[in-house]
Each structure stands twice: as C-alpha cells, then as structure tokens.
C-alpha cells in the first residue's frame, strides 16, 4: 500500500517536473546544446547502388509490373488504406490496433472499394494464363498491404470460386461465376471440422439424397462434425462449399462438395443453419472465421459439384473414377491454388521483414571497436551479416522459385497436376517456415525497436503464422511430398523405365562425383551445387525406399511409412531445396552478363552454401567430408562480406514503395519500406545530460528548440495535459 502511494506521488511530481520544463521558454543557447551524434552522419548509400534496383525488382517480381503499380496507386488514393503523407511521399499500411470487429468491417469496405475499381475483373471468368497471372500479381500486392485482406479475397475467389470452377460443371459455372466475380454472392469454404482438419477423409458431416424431392440433405451428426475455422462464415458469407461424406442408399461414397446457402442477402442466417464465431486470433483478425452446424439442410440435387461424380435424379451414384482413393485425389487436386498464393505471400512478407531489419542495421551503430572511434554499424559486424544475409539469399532464391511455381500453375494440365501438387506443397511449407524464421530473426535484429507495433515486423509474425497450418499443415504436406516421390521411385523401378517428371530426370544419369577437396571456385560453380543437391536427393530417395521396404517386412505396411519419418523429412527437404536451386539457376541463366547476373550469382552461391551448412544430411550420409564442411562454412562468411555492399540495394528491389514509410534521411530510399525507427539527437545539456531524444523529423515540425523531449511516454503525458507547444496529431 505504502509503496504504491509513494510511487504515485513520485509519478505526480515527475510529471509536474516534466511539464514545467516543457513549458519553459527556450533560449538560443539551449538550442545550441543539441549536438548531432555520429548517428546523424550516416549518409544513405542510395547514390552508389551497384545495380539498377528497378531491373532487379522486375526479375524478382517476374510478371505484371504495370498491374502491380496500378494497384499500389489505387491503394494510396483511399483513406480506407490508411495513407500517410510523410516527407512528400504517401505510405499505406493496415492498422492492427483496431478491434477485431473494426478490422473485419474495414476489410469488407476495402474489398468493396477494390471491386468498384475493377480490380477483380476476370478473376473467376478469365482462365487464360495471362488472366491468372494478373490475378496472382494483384493478390501479391494486396497481401503485402494486409494478410487479412488477401485471405478474405482468397477464400472468396480461390476457394469458393475455385471449387465452383474446378469441382463444378457448366451448370455451376453459368449460375455462380459471374455473381461471384461481382460479389453478388459472398462465398466461403467449409472443409475443416472441429474433429478433422488435416485428415479431410475423416470428416463426419453427412449428406444423403431424397429422391422424392430431388434434394440432398446435409447434417452435422456430432459436435466434432461442426465446421470450424471457416473464413467468412462468422459475418459475411452468404454461401458455402460444404465438404461432406455422401451416403447413397446406405453406402458411403466418400467426401464430396456441395453448394449451400447460409445467409440471405440481408445477412440473416438461413433456417436449419447455426453459426458461431471462432473469436479473436493471434493475427488475421480481419477475417471472420466461424463455425457452422447443419441441421437437415436441404439443397437442390444440382448443388452437388459434379465434375468427378454425380447422383442421378432417381438416386444412382455415377462416377467414371471407380477407385475411392483416386476419386478423393481428383477432388483434392484443384486445391493447389491456395498453396501457390501462400508460397509467394510468405516470400513477400520475408522481404518486408528483411527490408526493415537490413535498413535498421545500416543506420544503427553499437559499440566502438577502437574505444574512441565511431560506433560500428550493425551490418558491419560479421555476426550480424551472418544472421541476415543468408536469409536474404534464401528469400531471393525462393522468390525465383515462386515464379516457377506460378508458371506451372497457370499452364497446368492433367498431366502436370501431380508435379504441381508436390511442388506447391513443398514450397508452401518451406517458404512459410522460412518466413516465420526470418521474421523472428529480423525482429531480434531490430532490438527493442523490433517490438514496436509501428515497426511492423513483430505484427507480421502474428499475422502470417497461420500460413504454416492452413491450406494443409506443413508437416503433413511435406510427408505427402516424400510419399509421392517414393511412389514414383517404386513405379520407375517396377516398370524399369526412366524417371520422368518431378524434376527427377537427374536420377537417370550416373551418380555425380563430388571432388575430394573443395575450393572456393568449385563451391561457387553451378555444376558442383547442382551435383551435390542431386546426389543428396537421389541417395535419400533410395535410402527412404529401402527403409520403408525393410520396415514393411518387419512391422507391416501400415506402419512402415510412419516409422521412416526421419528419412521422409530429409528427402522432402532435399527435393525442395534442389527444386528451388534449379529454379534460381534457370532464372539466372536467362540473364546477360552484367551486374545483375553477378550479384545473383553471389546470392545463388550463398543459397547453396547455407543449405549445405544447415542440413545435417550432408555430413550424416557423407556427401560432404568434415573437412569440406568446414570449407563451406568459411565460404558462407566470405559470401556474407561480398554481399554486404549490396545489402541495401537488394532489399530495395520489390515494389514496396507505397507500402513503405518515410521518416527522414535515415530511412530514405525510393523503394524500401522502413519502419518508424526513429531519428535521434543526443542532448548534451538539459535536465538529463546525455539523454537520447527524438529528432525533428519525428516530432512536430514546430517543436520549440531547446525543449527537452523524452522518449514517447513523457511526450504523451504532456499532451494529455493540454500542452500548447505540441500537436499530438503529428506524433507517429
Ligand atoms: C485462421 C484459420 C483459417 C482457416 N480457414 C479455413 C477455411 O476457410 N476453411 C477450412 O475448411 N479450413 C480452414 N482452416 C482450417 C485449417 O485448414 C486447418 O486448421 C488445417 O488443415 C489443420 O487442421 P487442424 O487444425 O485440425 O490440425 P490437425 O490436423 O489436428 O494437426 C495438428 C498437428 O498434428 C500434426 N499431424 C496431423 N496429422 C499428422 C500425421 N498424419 N502425422 C504426423 N503429424 C500429424 C500436424 O502436423 C499438426 O502439427 C483455417 C484455420 C485457421 C487457423
């Protein structure tokens, strides 16, 4: 008690002291007391960029540059996207301090705004590769602005719209696609249940057919069968795709997809439907995830999405695919679009985190090496380079690989569907894991500033964490990658035919030979890098096949794969990293000699070296000797210092300019989003000598010289007391 009243007294007198000092009229001499520290001598190196960042951005974005710029331009025109004019530039970013309800409401308003401006034109009606690439580019941009916005749109167009496109037939396309594109209906996608997420085949919702009325009847038979996490269900969706077991004449035909209305156009929940809210989440609160129960909900027979199977009016089950496993696979195959969009979204988010952390590391100094000399820029510490630059190289590699994934997605055919399935599974998992790791490293690399909401990195962790779970849990997807490779291996062995597809053609060649001693030039050669990645993949595939087969003999078929999980993980990783490296290499090969190719060569080598360094398989199975592993480690360090001069240009290469914030020279660049990391001055005379205070770029422009401002808290306190000098509205 006593201590709490004395501390509140202290606080009152402290505030009085701050206020009285603040209100003191400044004198010219006190103005002189503000001296610039070495921190202010930093000059941004934009003038000395090693290569044309716009050209690099084009290489990395890969497609639809004008469309992307057009959309960025739209966002900054509307208050809905929270534009801020700072230093003559306009920046936009979502406000995560809003309540869940506010975030949901503004997300819907943003969608209406984009709809009115024709952003979604052709999104479900134009299936040409060009139309699909435009859609993917625009979704990239929206995801950079806000994950909730991209996901809410993604659920409506890619999941609801995609299910109608791919699971449906002409009758569904004609009835629903135009209305979907114009948001006359708002769709959601109800697959997951409380009791079954990854295991979609185990869902319990059950649908029967009533031949007397020509209707399907959908039921939630138990609490664990309630649909759960359904994006859009809690507030806005009028219709849903329902995944359900289909029971015809007492026989379960497996999981099928149906269209059901859940709300009328005024937003009232339909009869026999019950909906509840999933509530507040650690991020993505602009998406209204909900739970749905169906109580004998009747829908017309035509609402079965019948591309794979149908039910005749008199109740006969009809499908050209007799095998239930193959039928289920056919149902799931079109769902790759979500994994494609999440893969690229994860990469753009890593870029934002890295842009902020690298820029911070180019302005923040800490400790002096020589004692009296200037403090050292964070990015000049080799250890700091080692933390950020390999992540930057991986992000670049994954950016190029993401473009490769988009290409196989928009040109997909039934023949390429398996490849698309495993590449999208592998990339979605690996890139979303990479994103979470990158954001955490960037958060820490910004020190305390990384924790400020305004500096974005911390928030992004919460917003994007879900990417490791939805659209297929990462661990489960990676197991599917290995399982598919194993099936391909067994089939190639059985039929004694060469490998074709999945990029496994290298298995048809003799096993690569790795030189006994690795020099720097060998390590950096594409031949060595591809050879050692292919060697790892082919050897792990053989080991995995042998392990599963041995366990099958000992433990039975059902357990064999489960028990071989370690090799399955190693193999999925090897497959992913080889595919990424190959995609990077192919993008680089198209370039003519010059600075872009040079720096991409360094990044590709860094990507390869860091994969060699981080995967214990190389040592465990002897693809690298201990001595060579040490050489690789040294090469990582060398590459860090060679890439260091390019670091700023490399984070300025995506079209993030209108997403960024501008807080004075320290953060100036025409390309990169800096956070609100603040510009500071050291006060050498004043009520607390030697204290760091905020500089004029951040404080109101009419700040009185000589007034001693402290960091945020005290300033806010004064403002609340009606300080005449301060314009609270201008504080960032
Ligand atoms: C914010 C959010 C939005 C979502 N939106 C939608 C939506 O719109 N529509 C929709 O239908 N669903 C949606 N989902 C659901 C999402 O797709 C599922 O959460 C996801 O598929 C994982 O299922 P689960 O949560 O039941 O986890 P589980 O499947 O229970 O997995 C839990 C853990 O067990 C592990 N595991 C599971 N199976 C195995 C196995 N065989 N071997 C080893 N480990 C295993 C997983 O790796 C995971 O770590 C959303 C989820 C969230 C969080």
UniProtKB/TrEMBL annotation:
> Does the record carry Flavoprotein as a key word?
yes
Q: Which reaction does it catalyse?
A: a 2,3-saturated acyl-CoA + O2 = a (2E)-enoyl-CoA + H2O2
User: Domain Expansin-like CBD spans what residues?
Assistant: 642-711
Give compartment(s).
Peroxisome
Q: Which residues act catalytically here?
A: 471 (proton acceptor)
Gene3D superfamilies in UniProt: Butyryl-CoA Dehydrogenase, subunit A, domain 2 (2.40.110.10), Butyryl-CoA Dehydrogenase, subunit A, domain 3 (1.20.140.10)
Report the protein name in the record.
Acyl-coenzyme A oxidase
